[in-house]
UniProtKB/TrEMBL annotation:
Source species of the chain: Actinoplanes missouriensis (strain ATCC 14538 / DSM 43046 / CBS 188.64 / JCM 3121 / NBRC 102363 / NCIMB 12654 / NRRL B-3342 / UNCC 431)
InterPro entries, per database record: Class_I_gatase-like (IPR029062), DJ-1/PfpI (IPR002818), Homeodomain-like_sf (IPR009057), HTH_AraC (IPR018060), INH-QAR (IPR052158)
UniProt keyword Transcription, yes or no: yes
PROSITE patterns: HTH_ARAC_FAMILY_2
Keywords from the UniProt entry: Transcription, Transcription regulation
Protein name stated in the entry: Putative AdpA-family transcriptional regulator
Pfam families: DJ-1_PfpI, HTH_18
HTH araC/xylS-type domain segment(s): 204-293
Classification lineage: Bacteria, Bacillati, Actinomycetota, Actinomycetes, Micromonosporales
Keyword Iron appears in the UniProt entry: no
MF terms (GO), sorted A to Z: DNA-binding transcription factor activity; sequence-specific DNA binding
Amino acid sequence: MVFVLTPQVHLLDLAGPAQVFGTAPGYAMAYVAEEPAVPTWQGVMLHADTTWPELTADDLVVVPGWRSGYGHFARPTLDRIAAHHAAGGSVASVCSGADALGRAGLLAGRRCTTHHDLQERLARQYPAATVLRDVLYVSDDRVVTSAGIASGIDLALHLVALRHGPAVAAQVAREMVVYARRNGDDQQESAMLRHRSHLSDVVHRVQDRIDAGFTEPLRLTELAAAAGVSERTLTRLFTAATGQTPLRYQQQLRLERAEHLIGHGSTVEAAARAVGFGDARMLRRLRARTLVG
């Protein structure tokens, strides 16, 4: 397999998938670029080959992302990526690497994704592509695109699972101390991240407590006491900062985790118990409410 690098490449876009494939059995990795010295956005200088190895249809070509506004590939590199796909090979991108696949003509008529900050731009630049919002990765006819930064690990684990089976992918994830192999249609931003763009220290402290123990019964009186405010003040501050009450926030975390478990084969009943619901009725109501909404 080959990683194709451009100046200002993001280290984690490259290192995450490289670690997965380096841990999995049977992968020989090569790193190519148009110049032998490749500066990363994080300041580390990388060395790459300027000559591509011989590839077969079994090989994978991966394009890691780069700092927006900096990276680029010359036409011969793009043609080489396109030729590999035309010969039956698979290509993948992480984050802004999807732009290279678009320039190579590989996104037209296909579903794809990228980092949430770049999705609208990708859709404008490649109107013949179908850009899926808020998913981790998308696979369409041997063209696999993923969202930002750490989602490259999810993409790589997915590809390992396809080739070697889910047990091998799970073992790789365990060795890498990755919490769980996420599905492609998992959201790019979890509820823990979506409701953190506020400046209330009180609410952040309460969110920390809920995030750490959302499967447990959490009384409003306990949360308010931990934050040093009254229940009424906490509810007012929490709602103003996040748009929902502490209880609703906890339920959202439970629902999100339950959906992940169900997506990985758990029954609704087992998922409900795992996230702290007494039975599956509340989980079913929350899921139905989400679908209606």
